[in-house]
Amino acid sequence: AGKIIGAQPVLVKASVPCRIFGDTHGQLRDVLMLFHAFGAPAADKDVCFVFNGDFVDRGKHQLALVGLLFALKVSMPDKIFLVRGNHEEKSMNSKYGFAAECFSSLGQDFGFRILSLMQKVFDVLPLGCLVGEKILVVHGGLGDARWGLAELMNVRRPLRHEDLNNEDNDWINSILWSDPIEDDNQDGDAKVFGVHASPRGKVAKQFGWDVTKVFCARNGLSLIVRSHQSKRGSPGFDVMHDSLLMRVFSARDYEGHSNDGATLFVRKHEDPDAGEAHFDADGFVRPKEKVNVLWVRPQVLRSCTKARKDAIRLNRIPGDTSPPRSPRQEKSPRRSRNSTGKSTVSTRQEPAKMEPASSRSSSQSTSSRASSQVPLLESVGTLLSAKPVGKAAAKKAAAAKKITRSGETTSPRARAPSC
Asked: Could you read off the pLDDT of 36-50 as tens digits, one per residue?
């Protein structure tokens, strides 16, 4: 993998259609679920995949994930592109868990050898990817933006720990570490514009929307895609800076943030009316020019934490199709008349089916393909707490208590995988 990656330029180019992943941080499960929901890399498909850094540290399956990405790169070198993040670096691996996983999983000696080989590959990873000639993918951001695509293409590799800490390469470090200033920044208009210091450190910068706009105009770009930030409760993506900047983050529930995981799917859209005759401003009939537009569509995988909270709030349980009952219906018993005309009281409560979380696009549309891929609740027993009356209901209550004690049911649909 290192030889293949080192032979490619520091600014790689990907064709469209293309799927862009954000930070994955060793969360192999989320990557596999995103593959299953929206499409996996395949040699017989023309879709490129860009993984925008931070493959390791903090997650449960760091070695397995980075091994999978390297294997995909070797098997499909012109369709898989791995962009360097701030965690693909020696000191970060020692501090945030990748080195420890290598030692604990592979032993001290062999683990050290594997870690050294991995970090050699990290040192030659590209710093950016140009998608469809119009979209620049970098891990952190633009920093002070006093650089261009030409300067980025001339960066010499490998970039080791000591190289990144060289003052002459501060602008490279800022590409890995910088963040954009939010459009709705509460500190006043003065901090929305320009470049400012970042709480992440002296080499990192915070850049305003005007910096993004000037950089795109100067380099002939239509969009900047970056990752690097997980926001609490977010859908895994953001659109900001006058629609010239997008954030994508693929690791769900990262560090307890209850965030969704997302990817960005880029495809080419051709005007169906191109070539048709029309009248111009001078009254002449001219064919309409063909204009190619790149469409970017976020594809979202629902947070497990959000799915659990919604299921509890709606009192929905896998395995039943009845609608959820309102709190008033649950408290007030339903009265009906039997064959003798006497009024009877029924407190029977039907457990309802939990809806699996579905993917969402920027227009809030629902993907039926992805909706069935998200795991349901780990245990449904604690939600079955109704107290029916009558002989038939007593049997039902006994079954419910049995489910409550065991914490699972015998139905394979109810035994959802752990999040």
From this structure: 999 999 988 899 999
